[in-house]
Amino acid sequence: MSKIADSAENSRARHSAQDAWERDEDGALDEGFKPLTREEAQKLREAKPSISPWAVLAGQLVVGVLVACVAWLLTGRPSVGWSAMYGVLAVVVPGALFARGLTSKVSAMNPGAAVAGFFLWEMVKIGLTVAMLFAAPRMVPDLSWPALLVGLVVTMKVVWLVLWFQSRSNRLA
Description:
mainly alpha; 6 helices; 79% helix
C-alpha cells in the first residue's frame, strides 16, 4: 500500500513541477502554449533550414585564404602570409574534426550520446587548437604572431558572416 501512496506523491510532485514550467512570470498557467503539429514543424524547418557545419568551414577557409593573401600582399613578406594562414588552419582543422565527430552515426544514436559527443569533440577541438598554437613557432619560419592572430580571429568571426548570408537568402527566397 505504501508503494501506491509513494507513487501518488511522486505523480503530484511531477505535475506540480510541470505546472511550474508552464506558468508565466505572474504565476498564472500559460494557456497560449500549443505544441506544433507535424505539418507546422515541417513548415518551420523549411522556412528556417539548419546550416551545415561544412558550409561554415568552407566559408571560413575561403575568407582565411583571402586574409593570408592580403597579409602577404600588404607586407610583401611571405612569412606574414604563412603566419596568417597558420592562424586560419588553427581554426579550420580543429573545426573540421569537430564537425566530423558531431556528424558521425554514433552521435545520432540517442540524445545522451549526442550531448556527450558534443562535449567530447569540443574538448578535442580546443586541445588541438592550443596544441597547434604551441607548435606554431616550430611550424612557421619567421612567425609573425600578429598576423597569426589576425588570421585566427577573422576566421573565427566568419561564422557570423555565414549566418548573415543564410538569413538574407532565406528572406529573398
